[in-house]
Amino acid sequence: MPKQKRLSAADKIAAALRKALVPAAPTIKQSGSKKLATMAVPFTVPKWALGSRPANLYSTTAAGVVLTGQGRLLLSQAVLPGGRGVRSEKLLPFANNEFEWEVASALCKVKPELLIPCRDPLQGLFLFFCYYIPLFCRITVHQQHTCARDIPLWLWEHSTYLLAYERLCLEGYWRWRRKQRPKNDAGPARVEGSAKAPKKSFAGWFCSQGYLYWLKRFRSWRGAALKSFHYYMRKNSRKVTDPDPQIRRAALFGALKRFSELPGGVFGQELKTLLALPSTQRVFQRSRGRKSVLRGLVLNTWLIESWPVVTEYEWTYHDVQKAAAQKFESYAMSENLISSETSPKAVGPSEDESPLDTAKRIEDRCKSLGLRLSSGGRAKAGKPLVTEVAPPFCTLTCAIDGIAHDPAKWVGGQLDIPA
C-alpha cells in the first residue's frame, strides 16, 4: 500500500476550508433561468492606478470600523420598505473603483433580486462586495484561463478580487481555529484537533466580528495583491512609471503582451493608436521583449501580499523573519531571495548568508518596499524577545504565494475554494 503524503499545516487549513464552505456555495443565475449564466460585463482597458476608497462612507475608530453619517444614509436608502431585503443597485456608491462599479452594475442587471434575502443591510453590503463580485471575477478568470494557451495576466484586476476572497476566507477560518484551543493553552493555535468546522453560510463565518470589519479586511487583501502586481510589472518594465502617460501605457501593454495575447476587442483600438507613434511603438517592443533578471522578486512579492497580516496582528520584524524562514525554508540559501537592487556601496548578504538570517535584513528589505509596521508592532519592536514561538497567523502567510512565484497560478487563484 503506497505511503500517503503528509499534509502541511497550510494544506490542512485549505482542505478544511474547502469542506466548510461547500454548503455555503450558492450560484448566481440569470433571472428565470435554471442554468448558471455567464455574467458578461464589457471589458475595459485596465487602468494603471490604485483603487481609492469612496470618501466619507466608513472609517476606523477605537471602537472598530463604523459607517459615517453619509454612509449610514446611503445604506438606509438601500433597505426595502419594511426591511424586506436590500436593493443591490443602491450599494453602487460603495464601489471602490471603476472596475468594481462596472461589475456591480452588471450584477444588478443580471440578477436585481440578488440581495432580497438579506434582512441586514450590512450583511448585504458585505456579501455584494466580498462574495458576489469575487464570484463574478472567478467565473471570468476561469473561462479565460481554460481557453487561453498562455497566462492571461491582463485579467489582473479580476485576480486581485479572487485572491482577496481566498485570503479573507483563510483568515476567517484561521481565526475560528484559534478560538478552539484550550483556555490554558498560551501557545500558537493548532491546526490539528477534534473540533470540526461548523456548516455555516458564507456570511455566517464573518458575522461575529462585524461585517464592516471584514469588508475592511477584504479591501486590505485586495490592495496588497494590487500593490504586488504593480511592483512586479515595474520590475519587468521600468517604463510603466514614466511621466508620459502614453509611454506608461505602451510599456504596460508590452509587458502584458509578453505573458499572453491581448484580445483585440479590449486592446485593439488603444494598441493601434500606440503603435502608430514611433516613440510608443519602440517602448512597446522593448517592453515586450525584455525579461527581468532582478532577483528577490519571490520574497518581495510575498512580503507585500502578506503585509495585511503583519499590520493587523501587530507583528514585529522578528515575527516577519520567523514567518519568512518558515515559508522559504527550502529557499534559504537560494539566490532567488537575494535582491540585486542593493547599491554597490551597501553591504549586502554574502554568498554564505541568507536575507532571512536576521531580523535586521528583513527590516531593511521591508522598508525598501515601503512596508511599515503598525503602531502596535512598532511599540513592541524594541522589547526583548519573550518566546521563539511562531507569531499568530504565521501559517496563514505560509499559504500565500506572491505573483513572482507563479504568475499563472496567481492569476487563476491559489486555492480551489468552491464558489
Brief overview, please?
By secondary structure, the protein is mainly α.
Polypeptide structure, described:
There is one protein chain. This protein has 419 residues and is mainly alpha-helical. It is 49% helix and 2% strand. α11 crosses α12.
Topology at a glance:
Elements: H1 9-21, E1 58-61, E2 64-67, H2 69-78, H3 98-110, H4 121-147, H5 156-179, H6 211-236, H7 245-259, H8 264-275, H9 278-289, H10 297-312, H11 317-327, H12 359-368, H13 375-381, H14 394-398, H15 407-412
Antiparallel strand pairs: 1-2
Strand tally is 2
Report how far apart the termini are: 35 Å
Strands ordered across the widest β-sheet? 1-2
Structural class: mainly alpha
What string gives the helices and strands in order? HEEHHHHHHHHHHHHHH
List keywords for this structure.
419 residues; mainly alpha; 15 helices; 2% strand; globular
